[in-house]
Amino acid sequence: MAKIQSMSISEFMERGRDKKAVNAVKASVPFAVGGGALLMPTSAFAATPSEMVTGKMMDVIMGATDPIIEVLQAIAYPAGIIGLTLAGIKMMLNQRDGSVSAVQAVGIGYLMIQAAPWFMELLKMIVSGMA
């Protein structure tokens, strides 16, 4: 039987994050006071955009989106069951067109949410191959 663990939202968002990598990114991206303009370091002008994203920066981006994707994946199953139930009710009420399109939308949405980590890895491979 699985053990239930309770935590706050901020604890959930912070788990598994590399604090040193996050602090390094925060330190390397200074903002102008009041204006909000991004100040680029002089070494960034020599690098192409794909070179700037590869390596540690891509890992930080992927790590920042992991908690969001995990929450969406956890919500997808119950939301899919509710959507399929409502589509079944539409089918029983003789609204065939609406129910078929609802089943398609629920199925495609569920598959896309479950495949989001795979799409992120694919994007990472494409970007690192361009460098």
Describe this structure in words.
Helix content is 70%, strand content 0%. The protein has a domain at 48-131. Residues 29-45 have low confidence and may be disordered. It has helices at residues 9-14, 19-28, 49-53, 56-92, 96-114, 116-130. The longest helix is centred in the middle third of the chain and has 37 residues, at 56-92.
Cα-atom radius of gyration: 21 Å
Uncertain runs are 29-45
Order of helices and strands: HHHHHH
Number of strands: 0
Number of helices: 6
Work out the strand percent: under 5%
Which oligomeric form is depicted?
single chain
**What's the main sheet like?**
none
Shape: flat
- State the distance separating the first and last CA atoms: 46 Å
From the helix content, strand content and strand pairing, which structural class follows?
A: mainly alpha
Summarize this, please?
With 131 residues, the protein is mainly alpha-helical.
Itemize the secondary structure elements and their pairings.
Layout (H helix, E strand, L loop, with lengths): L8 H6 L4 H10 L20 H5 L2 H37 L3 H19 L1 H15 L1
Distinctive features:
mainly alpha; 131 residues; 70% helix; 6 helices
